[in-house]
Amino acid sequence: MRSRHMKAYTEKIKADSNDAKRVLLQLQGLYLFMGLAGGMFNPYINPILVAQGFSSKETGFIMAFGTLVSIILQPIWGILVDKFKKTRFVLVISLLVPASLAYFYNIQVYFILILIYTLCTIFQVTQIPVADSYAVTAARAANTSYGMIRLFGSIGTGVGGFAAGMYLSQFSIHMLWLPFLLFNILSAILASTLPRQTSISSSSVTFSVGLARLLRNRTFLLFLTGCFLVNQTLTAFNSFFVISFQMAGGSVTMTGTALLLASITNVPSMLAAAFILRKWGHERTMLLAAGAYMLRWGIQWLWPTPEVMIGVQVLHGLSFGFFYIAAVEYVASVTGREMQATGQSLFNMVFAGLGGIVGNMLNGYLLDSGGPSLMYLACTISAALGSVILYIVSRQAKEQRRAYSLE
Q1: Can you give the pLDDT at residue 274?
Q2: Which of 25, 54, 126, 201 has the fewest CB atoms within 10 Å, i.e. is most exposed?
Q3: Rounded distance, CA 266 to CA 268, Å?
Q4: What is the spatial distance between Cα 157 and Cα 256, in angstroms, rounded to a whole number?
Q5: Which of these, 107, 129, 127, lies nearest to 116 by C-alpha position?
Q6: Cα dihedral angle (368, 42, 161, 367), rounded to 10 degrees?
Q7: Has residue 338 got a pLDDT over 70?
């Protein structure tokens, strides 16, 4: 009888392990196709709009307004997921709606473009929190790190950026919506095969209650402030790199090479992230990454030339790669399982939402007013301020751990 129970238990463990590996592969494929879609299209949204006669300041306003509306509405996604347990459905529509609307970026009417970008962003804003909640849970179940999933997104983004440069050497920039549509459809197909239930949908704490708890945590608020100051600088790359690079004399093909180099450097960073996090901890790893951001922007401020702007992209993995992995896992460790979805959503609202609004408006204005040098100088200063705040977070965390060890 006992041997029968042991055999059944062993078979259950084996089945659970196989399920965990299957979900892990599905998520790696999902991040790969999401990366290909975003890598080919997102860096060129601004150039598409500029090609239609709009200034960087005007395109920055389009992006900032769309991001503002999306973060105001983002809590609704959390409430819908909590109430109706439709995690997988939300992820699928967050991929299909922007893909369906991408063609309409070619309309040369300013207010319609604001509407299209806003609608796309409203749906896209929930992609990362939902996918990351799946990824963090799946990584733990498969006894691996979140970085082993997220790196496939970086591979996809890098290959997509390079492929876009090759694509644009043959086709008009106004045709980029086609590969974006294709890869998003493939992403949606993979997302539809994921399990229905994850920690995001089985949370015992509602979004509103979890949000209230997190907003009372002073250390967490400091962490969010530091993330905001660091990540608003990333719009200088995500939204304005293609334009600033071409202003400095870079070609379309060289742009693809720079985007590929930046994203591919995320791969070794994310592979090494688990080791670095164990050795240094979340807070010190974020500090290291914030310092890399300062160096990255500082070099481009001093030498805004195509060759330097390509070479400095090797710091993308050390800056964004380490920072994002450490921040996501920091949120997961601080919020716990019951508030993981809420924590990731709040983090994304500040990191990508508020950071995107301020970054797009500020960097668009600075690029128009003083060119790449002025924009990168402001980014260097902002990353430095963020580093100071994250240093305070690191000190507080160290003191808390010391206090616990003495109890």
Answers
A1: 73
A2: 25
A3: 6
A4: 11
A5: 107
A6: 10
A7: no
Most confident of 3-7, 73-77, 362-366: 362-366
CA-CA-CA-CA torsion sign (115, 117, 120, 124): negative
> Does 199 have pLDDT greater than 50?
no
- Contact at 8 Å (CB) between 359 and 236? yes
Q: 352 or 8: whose pLDDT is higher?
A: 352
Residue 174 in this model has a pLDDT that exceeds 70: yes
Burial label for 15, CB within 10 Å (0-12, 13-18, 19+), is exposed
Other C-beta atoms closer than 10 Å to the C-beta of 304 total 20
The count of residues in the chain is: 407
Task: Please report which residue ranges of 338-354 form alpha helices under DSSP H.
Answer: 340-348
pLDDT band at residue 155 under the 50/70/90 scheme: confident
CA distance 348 to 335: 14
Rounded CA separation 339/204 (Å): 8
The whole-number average pLDDT for the span 165-177 is: 85
CA 255 to chain centre: 21
DSSP letter for each residue of 31-43: HHHHHHHHHHHGG
The Cα-based distances of 327 to 48, 134, 167, 221, 397 in angstroms read: 32, 16, 34, 13, 14
Cβ–Cβ under 8 Å, residues 180 and 61 = no
CB 347 within 8 A of CB 223: no
